[in-house]
Specification:
CATH architecture of the largest domain: 2-Layer Sandwich
Structural class: alpha+beta
Helix content: 55-70%
Keywords: Ribonucleoprotein, Ribosomal protein, RNA-binding, rRNA-binding
CATH topology of the largest domain: Alpha-Beta Plaits
Organism: Desulfoferula mesophila
Pfam families: Ribosomal_L10
InterPro entries: Ribosomal_uL10 (IPR001790), Ribosomal_uL10-like_sf (IPR043141), Ribosomal_uL10_bac (IPR022973), Ribosomal_uL10_bac_type (IPR047865)
Family: Belongs to the universal ribosomal protein uL10 family.
Shape: elongated
CATH superfamily of the largest domain: Ribosomal protein L10, N-terminal RNA-binding domain
Distance between the termini: 105 Å
Strand order of the largest sheet: 2-3-1-4-5
Order of helices and strands: HEHEHEHEEHH
């Protein structure tokens, strides 16, 4: 790789890291090409990226960004998964893939500028997605007015039952 190609890679990776909400470093040693292709397809389907970049170029691309803290103690070949929207999707895809492929290992990650370890990445994968959380929130917010309407309708229903009973009483008396 000549200098111009390296500069292009650094610029590309730097741009992706600047947009990233979550970054996860992985160890992919021992995986076959077909397995890596499958992982890339799974990530791409969710709008996520996976790339393998030399550590030196990755350090250059990350300098001056919050990702710089993630690269401390970085050694060996590393794959980098990048999530731009929902970090839960990234964690779910990687942990599911790691369960099916024991040679694939999640090393550590970066979430909103904070370094997280493997256990925290796995815990993140167990959270519901953003859409599910929003639906649960809306359901909870909707329950309060719905309960109020039910109580108010019960009062009116009780009043109507009393009036009907009075009407029936007067009809029997007459």
């Amino acid at each position: 790789m000549n200098r111009e190609q390296k500069e292009a890679v650094v610029a590309n990776v730097s741009e992706r890291l600047s947009r990233a909400r979550a970054v996860v470093l992985t160890d992919f040693r021992g995986l076959k090409v077909e397995q890596m292709t499958e992982l890339r397809h799974q990530l791409t389907a969710k709008g996520l990226d996976y790339m393998v970049v030399k550590n030196t170029l990755l350090r250059l691309a990350a300098s001056g960004t919050p990702t710089e803290a993630l690269l401390e103690g970085l050694e060996g070949p590393n794959g980098m998964a990048v999530g731009y929207d929902d970090p839960v999707d990234l964690a779910k895809v990687l942990t599911e893939f790691a369960k099916d492929n024991p040679k694939f290992e999640v090393k550590k990650g970066l979430l909103e500028g904070h370094v997280i370890d493997t256990a925290q990445v796995e815990a993140l994968s167990k959270l519901p997605s953003r859409e599910v959380l929003l639906a649960q929130l809306m359901g909870t917010m909707n329950a309060v007015p719905q309960g109020l309407v039910t109580v108010m309708a019960g009062i009116v229903r009780s009043l109507l039952n009393v009036l009907k009973a009075i009407e029936d009483q007067k009809a029997e008396a007459a």
